[in-house]
Amino acid sequence: MKTIKILCLAAVAALFASCGNNAQKAKEAAEREQAIADSLAQVEAAAKEVAFEEFFANLPEEPVFDIVTNLGTIKVKLYSQTPAHRKNFAKLAFTGFYDNVLFHRVINGFMIQGGDPNSKDPERQAEYGKGGPGYTIPAEFVPEYKHIKGALAAARLGDAANPLKESSGSQFYLVQNPETCAQLDGEYTVFGQTIEGLDVIDKIASVETNNRDLPLSPVKILKVTLAE
Q: CA–CA separation, 6 vs 188, rounded Å?
């Protein structure tokens, strides 16, 4: 009987050892697969960066982009004197970052705001206005760039949390009413201007919204592309 117990214990120990080895092998295989995936992602990111730099190098000094929405197209020119914002907007457009984001904050008689990646997910409404690419952009205030009708400007956190007035990495707004937006001159970076589609801004501004200024019927940016 004692011999049988010893044999049973040995068998159980061998089984656990085998399971342990299998688990370790599975873990190592998963780690190898993850390492390969990470390497491929790095290669892909590097290739995209090279492609963007080539694209950007061929842009005119003040490129024009189409903000294509489900209510029409807004054509904006990016200013040359705000180079960091110009390049960032071009890169986000080139990589498709803006595809299917919403104008999540719409105030008739003021402005329309979009560019938050959180707004792609209807389940994250409480987080609309808080998202971005994970970085900010230093302010580029140019005195002659005012909040005129159709001005393209960068959203940002308030002064208490953001004393340097750095811009959001992706969120922007378009001026609908220059009179109510004039107070923002020198406080928020204006980096472009609408050259076609002021009527579309008015159309978006006039949609019905809830108590958080979110349109009841989604106003979506389908894509942002370099204008032909």
A: 79
Rounded-to-5 percentages of helix, strand, coil across the chain:
40, 25, 35
Mind listing the pLDDT tens digit for each residue in 154-202?
Answer: 999 999 999 999 999 999 999 999 999 999 999 999 999 999 999 999 9
pTM for this model (two decimals): 0.81
DSSP string, 134-203: S-EE-----TT----TTEEEE----TTT-TT-PEESS-EEEES-HHHHGGGTTTS-EEEEEEE-HHHHHH
Quick one: DSSP state of residue 219?
-
Query: What whole-number distance in Å separates Cα of residue 117 and Cα of residue 171?
Result: 9
Which residues have C-beta within 8 Å of that of residue 106, sequence separation ≥ 6?
112, 113, 204, 205, 207, 209, 213, 214, 215, 219
Q: What is the CA radius of gyration of the chain?
A: 26
CA distance 221 to 173: 13
- The rounded distance, in Å, linking the Cα atoms of 90 and 97 is 10
Contact 140/191 with Cβ under 8 angstroms? yes
